Amino acid sequence: MKSLLIIVLISFCLPGSPDFTLLPRITPATASFFEKYPQFDGSGITIFIMDTGVEPTVAGLAKNPDGSDKLIDVFDASRTGDTPYRKLKVTQLDSVTYLTDGENLFLKDFENIDLPLRRVFGGIFKEERFKNSEPKDINDNGSNNDQWSFIIYPDENENWHLIMDTDLDGSLAGEKVITDYFVNHDLIRFEISNPLRQHKWFSLAVNIYPARKVVSFYYEDGGHGTHVAGIAAGYQINGSASMNGLAPGANLVSIKIGAGSMAGSATTAGAKKRGFDFIEKYMRAHPGQAVINMSYGIVSSSEGFSDIDTVVDEFCKNTPRVVFCCSAGNEGPGLSSVGTPAAAQFAVVSGALMAPATGRDKYGYRSEEPKLIHFSSRGGETVKPDLVSPGAMLSTVTKWDQGNFKWGTSMASPYTAGALAAVLSGLISEYPGELISSALILEGIRQTAHPLPDLTVLEQGAGMLDLLGLYEWLEDALKKPAQPLYQIRTETFNPMLPEQKANSVFWRLRDTSDIPEDNYIRLLPEFSRQTTRAVIDGFTLNYRVKSNAKWAVPAEKNINISRDNPADLAIRIDASKLPLNSVQTAIISLVPKGSKWQPVGQRFYATVIKPLHFTEENQFHFSAEHETVETGNTKRYFVAVPTGATGLHITVTADRDEYAAVRTYVFDQNGLQRARLNNLDTGEDVLKAEKWLTRNLTQGIWEIDIYGDLKGKAQSRYNLSISFAGISVDDEPVKNLKFQAGEPPTFSGTLVPVLDTYRNVSIKASLEGYGKSHTIKMGASDTVKVSFTKEKGDAKIVFTADIPADKYIYFTDLATMIKNSEGVYVTNTGLDYPVTDITLNAGNPPGDYELMFIFAYTYPDDETVFNFPLEETHYFPTVISGAYKLPQGTLYEGIPVDYKVSFSDIPRLLPEGYAYKGRLTVSTKRGDILLEKKLILEP
């Protein structure tokens, strides 16, 4: 999963009518609310944007409808803008008086400024920090290496001020005095040396922290946060009176957590935690209702139980007036693909829809109904997403951004956040001073949202927001007092990761008869830290326990929660009558019974997947003809990978006289995407797509998804074939490459077919390059560097990192960069999956490089130590091939075959410490890949 949950599409669209369809503020889900309550526009609500920053100078984010500044505070939680300072002294050079650090900083013309000369400090803000960001020349003067000197000083009231030499003339004459942003909303705007050049909007705000001895320069260098902010709260976007976000009257507070210089504008160690701490402190100083939007996340190995998930849940219960909205992730359409922190139980998590009018006007789509976009992450072990919102739209962007139209769950979450801010603005005007708990709001969403037909709860949660229905439900709920209990947290056994936990029952087994009859889930009452012990000790509440499925029923119809004591609830599952190749989900609801308090319930899921089996009886093959899938829907095939399988073959075809427009994806048992086939499209005469998977074909229940492409004109019809092959191979990690003087090398081994007999078989090998293994140790630092050299005879260089899945719980991001000798990142990517390739492409010249891993620990002082393997492979420009001719051309099941491969050429000599790397491939004459194995070959 990317750090920024977004897909960018370049567009230069102009705003149109009041119901501007490329930012669909008015939809069937929102129209009745905005028509009835046009004055409820988010006024009085603060939306915190935890992202790459927000650029306050763009049209749409500068002002509120009442003329006040929209961006009221900024905080750089990433600390990427931190700039140290030190004490300055006064000196004279050539009859000119300077403030100086004695080395690099010399500033004159300060005599007319009321400075406490014994307490003047200074530093230098360097433009080189942007060399790996999108905006590189921030003052647009043709140079990327400017350095701006600045001074800071306190006034008589201990308020700190900053003056910067913005025009680089060494003088403070005419420069503006800047204070911390929240005081006067001061911004540093650079002069343009050449007014004929296009000005790339860029501004700096400052916050001065004497205790840390740094000036924090806040800036937006990713672009993502500005786009997100416009969706939530933009007012007159692009200068158009008819184009607004969902809550145009809301104030914004920008919390920068992402560094634009890193892959995906990745977060830094502790950034998210510092951001939540700031918000909690801010809300104590500014009581009221607020909303957070965080369109950030990575893949999760323990949904709901990563460190950042825990931070989010703790924040929500301790700051109940703040609703935390988060994007589900862009790792769909497979199940168990919701990331972190989207798996936090108390978050409001959004999947992404294509609004019909947006799809029509942007892409020519023909659907009259909202459709779930293919990439939107789906649930599994967790009760997420909670809802689905439009996730493709135009919004505010910085001048240097790639385009103003983007899609992703990144866009769906601020849509939800803005919509909730609009509802809250109405509630606080009608019920001033009333506590509106985020737990109550989440329950209201679940009670009033409209589910979309043909989508399961794992795909859409409760469905689409009904703003008017939500508002009226909350109005009715507020007639009762708020209960002292914030919410109930759930924990249960996680069969996918037995050493960890899940918050819903989720069984994904080869044999569903192994599922125990009683599945216990622990109910954990959560109270905010402000709740007194006396109140907790006096608390008791009865719940009615309901299930919407007959195959998963609660053992108890009623359960009592008393004080903060855990309670165990058993769900009895009978999977015997569930159909093959299906996923079935039961919603288990806890409904308050006879309560005097607001109706805050809870829910969790019980899900069972019953897969297809591949055995000798069906020759390890499954096929289906004339299958159908509707546009925007997903047809799922769950396959139990047989023991000994080394190859998975998938073929999707369409008949020429039928219509098909489908995408095909393959996900492993942990919900990680392992392959995507070419799109099947009869309109473009693409009638076949196929894929052989051999790498990381692990045991478990895999998922093959056929998704009806949104551009489809009608229902798609297709044929599907799935088959497995299996060959056992000697598993020595290193093979000997045998040389004889002047002759190409050879190597040998043994194969054993284990699933079937295979005819017309060829055994081939290749010497692809050379490399070595590293062991990377994390914990002593959040950054690890690996130096390497690209030799003249190298093509590309690939590093393969294999991060332990159970270590993902510690991080909010894992960024990787390769930089050249000049410090410029030539490769900038993120570790989206536990096994990830980082590539230095062939276009980069020979020379010295450095690979960097930057692990953003949730807790900045976390020193968790672990090792992971890293493989370094340098590829030859030309592969050296070899082959072995099988005497009979047939591999018989269970019968070992010895082989000896002779290569066609002599490989070049290697640097010390490196070994040759290659590949062994066993395939049939028609191209079916039975086995593909990486080789390490030493002389």
Model description:
- The protein is mainly beta.
- Helix content is 12%, strand content 39%.
- Strands 43, 44, 45, 46, 48, 50, 53, 55, 57, 58 and 59 form an eleven-stranded mixed sheet that branches. Strands 2, 3, 16, 17, 18, 19, 20 and 21 form an eight-stranded mixed sheet that branches.
- The longest helix is centred in the middle third of the chain and has 22 residues, at 409-430.
- The two termini are 40 Å apart.
In short:
This protein is mainly beta and 939 residues long.
Give descriptors for this structure.
single chain; 939 residues; mainly beta; 8-stranded mixed beta sheet; 59 strands; globular
Please give the number of β-strands. 59
What ranges have pLDDT less than 50 throughout 5 or more consecutive residues?
7-19
Counting copies of identical and different chains, the oligomeric state is single chain
Q: Work out the helicity level.
A: 10-25%
Overall mean confidence score, pLDDT: 92
Strand content: 35-45%
Backbone CA Rg: 30 Å
Structural class: mainly beta
The largest β sheet comes out as: 11 strands, mixed
Coarse shape = globular
Gap between N and C termini, in Å? 40 Å
Tally of helical segments? 11
